[in-house]
């Protein structure tokens, strides 16, 4: 195989597509619900993924000691994120501040594992509840009274506008408080 895949003929590129098209499917599924929330047409997202796939094949360089599948995944993921950022505007800042469910909270335990109901062991569930309660206590102890009020309202599922009305604060004040909350929570989780 040549150093760059750019010189491949169309048949070889099609063969590579058949071999690695599963990556597109996985990444589309990963961002599917977010795309729907933002009103992104799934077909547009798939087209962008295909463009990224093609770009990855054309710009892949074997001398970089990176697997082709990894390179394709990174290229497609970046392209999809770019589309999502385009559609979300201000929401992109929020998106980047959230932890992934695959975030490693404790060694070997992701956030997804902590909130999952898949495990039915009562001792495990009790331990998880205790960890969660401890985390909530740490969070609540680190917040000012104003931040705590907003945290409780967010916990109860209220949106920013409703919180602004209830707390007699303007949207900017509520947004600033939520950003402070996120930063404090992020710091607590990191510790």
Architecture overview:
The structure is a single chain. This protein is mostly helical and about 190 residues long. It folds into 2 domains: about 5-95; about 105-190, Orthogonal Bundle (Arc Repressor Mutant, subunit A). The protein is about 75% helix and about 5% strand. The chain has 9 helices and 2 strands; from the N terminus they run ααααββααααα. It has helices spanning about 10-40, 40-60, 70-90, 90-95, 110-115, 120-140, 145-155, 160-165, 170-190, and strands at about 105, 110. A two-stranded antiparallel ribbon has the order 1-2. α7 packs across α9 (about 170-190) and α8 (about 160-165) packs across α9. The model has no long low-confidence stretch (mean pLDDT about 80).
How many domains make up the 3D coordinates?
A: 2
Q: Strand order of the main beta sheet, please?
A: 1-2
Order of helices and strands: HHHHEEHHHHH
The 3D shape can be described as elongated
Share of residues in helices: over 70%
Radius of gyration (Å): 22 Å
Going by helix content, strand content and strand pairing, the class is mainly alpha
| Residue runs with pLDDT of under 50 for 5 or more positions | none
The number of helical runs is: 9
Strand content: under 5%
Mean pLDDT equals 79
Cα distance spanning the termini: 47 Å
Largest sheet: 2 strands, antiparallel
Q: What is the number of E strands?
A: 2
